Amino acid sequence: MRWLLPLAAFALALTSGPSGAVDGMACSAPSLAQGITSRRSVTSHEPVLLACTGRSAQRIAIRRSVIGGTPYLLLVEPARLATSLEPEACWTCSAMAEQRMSQTPFGAAVARAAAAKGFPSRAPSFNAGLTRGQAGGVFLTADLCPSRRPLDRAILTDIAGRWPGAALALAVSGAWLRRHAVDLEWLKERVRRGDLTITWVNHSDRHRYVPGVAQDRNFMLLPGTVPEAEILGAEWTMIEHGIVPSVFFRFPGLASSPDLVSAVSRLHLVVLGADAWLALGGRPRHGSVVLVHVNGNEESGLRALERLVHRPDFGPLQDLHDLP
Ligand SMILES: [Zn+2]
Question: Does the pTM exceed 0.85?
């Protein structure tokens, strides 16, 4: 909470009140805060770092997007790290220094995740980022890498059956979203009905993978990767498809390098690793980030998760926002 005071003083120093209009747009466009929306056209999406006040709240804006012709901000609630897309016209914002950002709980989470190096011995770097939380239970994360196969709906239905409204983090690639409109609608319907609470994790846009290339030179380590394009492109695609990106980013294959980790944290995202990759024999402990794939490509991980879901000592499922 220390950061709130300087931010409040900063806001008072601004000469204008809530701006009320940006490019002629009144503060009337809807807030896209529910994590899911309908499909919308996005014509720009760029990084910013702004301290914002409005709607009786303080937020940090990390992106500005033009959605359906209206400027929106991707706002982060700085203590909880929850995100929402809000019309820019409803907020009064000013440039935020990196140093001030670093003093917020959000900034601390970005830095802590970037400092978690994973296993640098598996060069250049494997499993960087946050892998365990303080809370009991587990953080269930499921990856949606590009796939021709359909979403593994049965396991998600099982999970919602055992824990109605279960917190689930889906690490979604832009390439998966572009190919799975029907599955995405099925997921949104689970959220609307309250069966699942989904945190949408950025899993890169193209999620390139070349068969036969060693893991430590594959994925985003392939030549020609532009990290910013992968990160922002995935967000752009998420917003176009009606889902609100969270502050979390997971590297494809968990493969990264110090430079890639820096690129993620420069864009103010929290790198997410895994403590228990079920298909690789990982055993969840209390506080583990559990990793499984629900894109039709990881039968062994699914079988392991099915067994866990029916064990009385597994869970509860924690909200990813409680990880940092
Ligand atoms: Zn993946």
Answer: yes
